[in-house]
Design a protein that fits this description.
Elements lengths: L2 H21 L11 H12 L3 E6 L5 E6 H15 L8 E4 L5 H13 L2 E4 L8 H15 L3 E4 L1 H7 L8 E4 L22 E6 L9 E5 H14 L12 E4 L6 H12 L3 E4 L2 H6 L2 H9 L4 E4 L1 H10 L12 E4 L6 H10 L10 E3 L1 E2 L6 E3 L9 E5 H7 L11 E9 L4 E7 L4 E2 L6 E7 L26 E10 L2 E7 L4 E3 L2 E3 L1 H9 L5 E13 L2 E10 L12 H23 L5 E5 L14 H9 L7
Parallel strand pairs: 1-10, 3-4, 3-5, 5-6, 9-10, 9-11, 11-12, 12-13, 26-27
Antiparallel strand pairs: 1-2, 7-8, 14-15, 16-17, 17-22, 18-19, 18-20, 20-21, 21-22, 23-24, 25-26
Length: 602
Amino acid sequence: MTLASRQSWLVRLRSVQESIAATHPVGTGPPGGDLAAVLGRHAAQRGEQVACVALGMAGDEEARLTYAELDRRARAVAAVLQDGTGHGDRVLIVLPSGVDFFVAFFACAYAGMVAVPAPSPETLGGGALWTRLRSIAGDAKPGWVLTTAELADLGEAQDLGPGRWIAVAGVDPLLADVWRAPAGDDPRRLAFLQYTSGSTGEPKGVMVSHANVLANFAAMDGATPDLDGRAGPGLTTVTWLPLFHDLGLLTPLWALYRGGRAVVLPPAAFLLRPALWLRAMSDHAAVASAAPNFAYELCLDRAGGDTFDLSAVRYLFNGAEPVRANTQRRFAAAFAGSGLRPGALRPCYGLAEATVYVSGAREPGDPLTVEADVEALERDGVVRPGGIGGDRRELVTCGRVPGNIEVRVVDPHTRRDCPPGRVGELWVAGASVARGYWQREDERFGARLADGRGPFLRTGDLGVLHGGLVVIAGRADDVVVIDGRNVHPQDVEATAGTAHPALAGTTAAAFGYDDGGRTCLAVAVETARAHEVFTTTAPAADRAALAAAVVAAVRRAVATEHQLSVTDVVLLRPGGLPRTSSGKVRRRETRRLFKARALEAW
C-alpha cells in the first residue's frame, strides 16, 4: 500500500468514525438468536480465552485473538458497514485463512448483513482469482468488500461493481464503541451466501440463514456425543480447507459456537507439506478436524517418518468426496502408533445446500462398509450381499442421521420411497436445509413426494439407508450407462488410480461420452509426483514406454475388476485433474477438457 493510499484510507476511516458517532447511539449488546449473539455471550463469559489461531506456511503461529478481541474487532468493522453509504446488504469477504477472516465474518453478523465468503490469492492466483470474484460479485452484487490493504488497492481497479473496499486490519477497534445493534434479531435472516464450488455445474449462492447454521451445529453436536457439555479450550478444531468453502468454514465456526478454539492452516501449506495438518493437530491437542479423502491419502504418502501426538483427536471426519474404505483402514493403522484412537475416523455425508452436515454419527458395532453384489447393484440398482463366488463391492457407510434431519431414499421418477435396499436419490429435510439459491429458482428445493409430503431438498446423490446408516452410491448425473449397467465412476476411479505404481492413487476421473450413438468410457488419471520417468528431462523413449505400460495396466485393471472396456486413458501431469476447492473431482469439466483436447496430459 502506497503512502498516499494509506493516508487516503485513514482519512476515509476517520470520516466514517465521525459520521457514525454523530448520528448513532452506542450499541448496547448483540442481537439475540444468531451468530453475533453466540460470539457476544462467549466474549462476556470467556473474554480472555483464545478463540482463533492462525498458522503460517511453516505451521508456526502467526496471530491469535481472544473472544473479547474478536468481539471488539468484529463490532468495529460492523460499525463501518453501518455508516449507510454501502450498496445493499451483501458483503464480499476476500481474505486468506487467518484471524481477519473471522473478524470480517462476525462483523457481517453484527451489522445485520450477509457475508459472501470468496476465494483469495492463497487459493486462486492471477487472472483466475479476478474472474471468479467477478462471477460471484456479478451474482451477489455486494455493497462492501472486506479484504487486505494490498487487495483493496488492486481491487478498486477491478470490475466488481460499486462496492466499497475496506481493509479489515486497518479498522480502528475504537469504532466498536459506536456500533449499534441492528433492528430485529430474526434468526431466519441470511447469515451468508455459500457459493458452490462448481463440481456439478455453474456456481450458485446457497442462502444460509443463522437458523440453518445453529440447527446444523446442533446436528453436529449429536454426532459427537463424547463432547457433550465440553466447551472452552478443551475443544479445539484444526482445518486447512479454504474458509470460503462450506466444510472449511463450518468446522472452525462450530468450535467457536461451542466456545472452543479454532486453528486454521493455509491450504497451500497443507498441499506442500501434508504433515503440517497432523503437526497442527498434535501441537494444539485438536479434538476434531475434517477433510476430503484425498487429504488422508496425501498424509499416507508424504507424512511418514514424523512423530505426532494424536491422542486428543476424537473425531476425524472424512467427507466432501467419496470415502474409500481402504484409505480409512490404512490411515488408522499408520497413525495408531501416534495415539490415534480406534473409531476416530468418521466417514460423513453432507452438502452446502443443507448447510454442510447431514450424517456421520456412529453407534458401537456399526460397520465401516457393506458388501454389495455387483450385478444386482449395476443392473437392478439394489444393494444386497453377494453370493458365493459372485463379484462383490465395498460401499462405505457414512454414519447415522441426527434427530433434527430427515433423509429419505426416493425414486426420482415416481417421487415415491424406494423399497429397502434399492438405490434412489437422497432427499433431505430439516432446519439445516437452506431456503434456496440466491436469485434463482431451482426445483431441488421444495420438492414433495407423490403423496404431498415435504418439502425436501433433492440432493442429486444416489444411495441407500442400510440399517440406519447412509450409504452413497454416486451422483445421478455422473452415472454412466453402459450395456444396461449403471456404472458409478467412483468405483472405476478407485481401480484405475491404483493400477500402476506410477499413478497417484485415487486421483482420477471416469466419465462417459457419446461416439456415434455408442457410449464410451474414458479415464483421466494423474501420475505420481515422485515417479522419475515422468519428468521433462527423462528420455522420450522411456516416457513413451512407461506411458504404454501404465495405460495397459489401467485398462487391464478396470476390465478385470468391473468387466468394462476403457476406450480412452489419459495420463495427466501431477495436479492436472480438475478439482473443486475442497478436492472434489470435476468430472463434467474433465470431460469438457477431454473433448477439447485441453487436459494437462503428458
